[in-house]
Design a protein that fits this description.
heterodimer, A: mainly alpha, two-stranded antiparallel ribbon, 74% helix, 1% strand, B: mainly alpha, elongated
């Protein structure tokens, strides 16, 4: 598409404009409704940042012929901020519909408290993570591979022909593979299992996921991703055989049960420890970095920003006052939502829901933002599960209130990860953080009603749940977990052990080790292995060809991998609708 | 160097020991899992036996009083609002149902009767397994915790101690390494002096800002040249400083590091903004961003000077 007219412009540099805001909201709302449908049908969510960036190019630079790189960044920030609600809602709320269908006591719940709670969660997610921008992006320098990929896309008009070609090459390779490896076509594998060659049992996995986005994230992470691989090795090549040979996994006494035993090991022993590790690792990371965080937050105070304005210009970030007011308002809305959710909630319980929910949201948001920053993988469902469990016990088994808070937390932690990813992109293209933060806060209320409305709509027609056209697999899983929790099945021992282990690992001088090991225990090994191959390849190439080559060649190719897979995954999903 | 490797080895060993102990199931959980799985397997076997019987029945063109109800057919209509039966009530109802079916005289040829008997036997076995499962108590969260602590608490604690020791040793090793005047920022590269690097960055960016300011009518070549200089500055000066940040942290502590890296990162972001503005053909914004970047780099340099004067090498 043609660039803006050449020659020095005297008009103000376009950044947070009405055009970017409106385009972002339209794109975000459309993607939210579509992605809710995709989540209900296929069981996974999608990120819309790259789609928004490409449409932004077409509309802002192509049609309007005046868009800038940072203006398009605002457009993708807004679109992805709105769209974050789709995963948050589709992971959680449909479980209540499924449970209410069989339980008259749950039927007839109102949408209003869910919209309120989801909106409060959306604002809270942004507000609680903002003070950590400096810590995560400027001090720790977390990679946020998707953030780098979108930045490469946004910078492509000026990055030179060679880099644009490399981006395109990566994009085409990943797009072709994703198209051909789609489950319905099956022309290429999406996983290669070497286990058969060595007659390895399923509890000693030797399969590797063939995902170019995953591989690309590993390439961008390089050496920093090695603890993630080490965590996978520990979980699947050390703990798993040890547990199997020590009789820690039930033997039902029937042939052919090794697959089930591996699943049992993963879901009952490894995954809960992984969730605990994520929490402990992230918490200790904050404690260790407290002096830097204090300094960053101090920098947000009105006095310091005013002093800075004298030397370096207007404030670059939102001040602490905005955050405090926003936090208070969002907690109040959450309290109100809890009060009107069901008539069985007392004032004290509503206070608990608002306070504990906010604290958990902040902690889980920190975990998810760190995990996304380190690997591009988000343990959203694990964190939402803990939120629902916590609320279940706090409200003495009130399922409506528990799922309501699950919706709020799921959207909130999604916002944490999305805001940080967008701010990383912003850092790389030179956006003003304050404008990005304002843009995301301005539209934080849009996604929740769209996503919840879409769930209601799809419940009426065509309907969803196991055995229907829209299987809602995540909702069915959450339903099963809630039923397990109501029977007292909560792996508190594993969570506690994981938190202790993560906290201890957080003392190691390399940041994020606890989070990375936890994430590896939380995921199937084939994903970790695919990512690890990317890390090792990147390290080898850096040693061989140097750091400059990595920046000029490997980064655009890897960005192309991530963008290509994202775009074709979306096309594949839409084609199935 | 030796201290660093010992620290790392302790952390790895401690993590392995603690993680294995963390994964150990509490007492009772294995048996609970076995019973639940057995119920599932026997349920599946009963369903398969019924399907086989039903297929044979259909093939023979026969209908029977017990003829193949749908898989999950309710045993009786439940009035609206009535709570679902408890597991014990459901078991009793299912036992009655099988007993009633057994009283029905078998019909059809012998192979069909054999299949019917196999189905009823499988159903009865499945129901008895469910009866066994009802008696198994799910461990409550606090019971799980205390049981696990009793079984795995000691090795788990030992693992944690190893990790903490290893982490502390690694931190000491890192601090000792940072006391060297200026270690290499990466293999084969010249040692990086933060003070010199920051001064060069500040001066270069300030010079670029001044040149850009003086340029009243920039041509496309000016845009391209300035963008190329920014690319070169990022690669040769800013990235090496960013890469070597852990040494700064080890030497001046987290707060000192933050004091320098806050403005340094803001400067870097404004260099990126200048680059974007150049791509967008917006010379005034590029000029302004370079000026802001220079101010931030200068601030970073002053912060570093303060740290150095407070803690000279």
């Amino acid at each position: 598409m043609p660039p803006p007219p050449a020659g020095p412009s005297q008009a103000p540099y376009r950044e947070f404009t009405l055009a970017a805001l409106i385009l972002g909201v339209i794109l975000g709302a459309a993607m939210t409704a579509a992605f809710v449908y995709i989540s209900l049908k296929l069981g996974f969510g999608l990120s819309g940042s790259s789609v928004a960036a490409i449409v932004g190019f077409a509309v802002l630079r192509g049609v309007l012929r005046r868009g800038t790189i940072v203006e398009n960044n605002i457009n993708q920030t807004v679109a992805s901020g709105v769209n974050t609600a789709s995963s948050g809602v589709a992971f959680t709320l449909p479980a209540l519909f499924l449970m209410a269908a069989n339980d008259p006591e749950l039927a007839g719940f109102s949408a209003a408290p869910f919209v309120l709670a989801a909106t409060a969660g959306s604002f809270l997610g942004i507000i609680v993570i903002l003070p950590l921008r400096k810590q995560m992006i400027e001090f720790e320098r977390l990679r946020f591979p998707s953030g780098i990929a979108v930045a490469s896309l946004l910078r492509s008009p000026g990055a030179g022909v060679r880099q644009a070609k490399l981006l395109a090459v990566g994009l085409v390779i990943a797009a072709l593979h994703t198209f051909m490896a789609d489950a319905e076509r099956g022309w290429l594998p999406d996983e290669v299992d070497f286990g058969g060659l060595f007659d390895a049992p399923p509890w000693f996995p030797l399969a590797i996921s063939i995902s170019f986005a995953n591989f690309g994230a590993g390439l961008l992470s390089g050496r920093g991703g090695l603890p993630f691989v080490a965590g996978g090795v520990l979980a699947w090549w050390i703990i798993s055989p040890f547990a199997m040979t020590s009789g820690w996994v039930p033997d039902p006494g029937a042939p052919g049960q090794e697959g089930w035993q591996t699943g049992y090991l993963f879901f009952n022993l490894l995954r809960p420890v992984g969730i605990g590790l994520l929490i402990g690792g992230a918490l200790m990371g904050v404690i260790v970095a407290l002096p830097a965080i204090k300094s960053a937050i101090k920098g947000l105070s009105a006095t310091v920003q005013a002093r800075g304005a004298a030397t370096v210009g207007p404030a670059q970030e939102l001040g602490t006052r905005v955050m405090t007011v926003g936090l208070g308002a969002a907690v109040l809305v959450l309290f109100g939502a809890a009060m009107i959710a069901t008539d069985q909630i007392t004032v004290m319980e509503a206070v608990w829901i608002a306070v504990v929910g906010t604290i958990w949201l902040a902690l889980a948001g920190l975990v998810v933002a760190q995990a996304t920053g380190l690997t591009d993988i988000s343990p959203l469902s694990g964190m939402a599960l803990i939120a629902v469990t916590l609320m279940y016990f706090l409200t003495q088994g009130n399922i409506v209130a528990s799922i309501m808070l699950g919706v709020a937390v799921c959207i909130g932690i999604g916002q944490c990860a999305d805001m940080m990813t967008d701010l990383k992109t912003g850092h790389l293209v030179g956006s003003t953080p304050r404008k990005q933060q304002l843009a995301q806060l301005t539209v934080a209320w849009v996604g929740a009603p769209v996503a919840i409305g879409a769930v209601y709509l799809f419940w009426e027609s065509p309907g969803f749940g196991p055995g229907t056209q829209l299987g809602a697999p995540q909702a069915a899983t959450l339903q099963a977990i809630i039923e397990g929790v109501s029977a007292g099945n909560v792996p508190l021992d594993k969570y506690a052990a994981g938190i202790g282990l993560g906290s201890a690992l957080g003392l190691f001088p390399i940041g994020g080790v606890g989070v990375l090991v936890g994430l590896a225990m939380y995921l199937p090994f084939s994903i970790t292995l695919g990512y690890g191959v990317g890390c090792l390849t990147s390290m080898g190439l850096q040693r061989w060809l140097g750091r400059a080559w990595i920046g000029s060649t490997l980064v655009p190719i890897s960005a192309g991998f991530i963008v290509g897979e994202a775009l074709v995954s979306l096309a594949n999903a839409l084609s199935k609708l | 160097m030796l201290m660093r490797w010992i620290g790392l080895a302790l952390v790895i060993a401690g993590t392995a020991v603690a993680a294995i102990a963390a994964a150990r199931p509490p007492a009772g959980l294995i048996e609970e899992g076995r019973v639940i799985r057995r119920v599932d397997l026997l349920g599946e076997a009963a369903k398969a036996a019924r399907d086989e019987y039903c297929a044979a029945l259909a093939e023979a063109g026969l209908s029977a009083p017990d003829a193949c109800p749908p898989p999950d057919a309710p045993t009786g209509q439940r009035p609206e609002g009535e709570p679902p039966p408890t597991p014990a009530e459901q078991l009793a109802a299912d036992r009655d149902r099988i007993a009633r079916l057994r009283q029905v005289p078998p019909a059809g040829p012998a192979p069909l009767q054999t299949k019917r008997e196999a189905w009823l036997t499988a159903e009865a076995t499945s129901i008895e397994a469910r009866g066994e499962a009802v008696t198994v108590q799910t461990l409550q969260p606090s019971e799980r915790l205390t049981s696990w602590l009793g079984l795995a608490g000691l090795p788990y604690a030992a693992g944690l101690v190893l990790i903490v020791l290893g982490a502390l040793l690694s931190r000491r090793a890192q601090a000792a390494a940072s006391r060297g005047d200026a270690g290499p920022s990466r293999k084969g590269a010249a040692p990086l002096d933060f003070g010199v690097a920051l001064r060069e960055i500040t001066e270069t960016v300030a010079a670029m800002a001044a040149e850009a300011e003086a340029q009243a009518a920039p041509t496309q070549a000016d845009f391209d040249a300035l963008k190329a200089r920014l690319d070169a500055l990022t690669l040769s000066h800013i990235e090496p400083v960013v890469e070597a940040r852990d040494r700064l942290k080890a030497r001046y502590g987290v707060a000192g590091f933050a004091a320098v890296f806050g403005p340094l990162s803001a400067g870097e972001r404004n260099v990126n903004r200048a680059w974007s503005a150049l791509v967008d053909q917006h010379w005034p914004e590029a000029t302004a961003s370079l000026g802001t970047a220079a101010a931030y780099f200068g601030e970073a340099r002053r912060e570093l000077d303060e740290l150095i004067s407070a803690k000279p090498t």
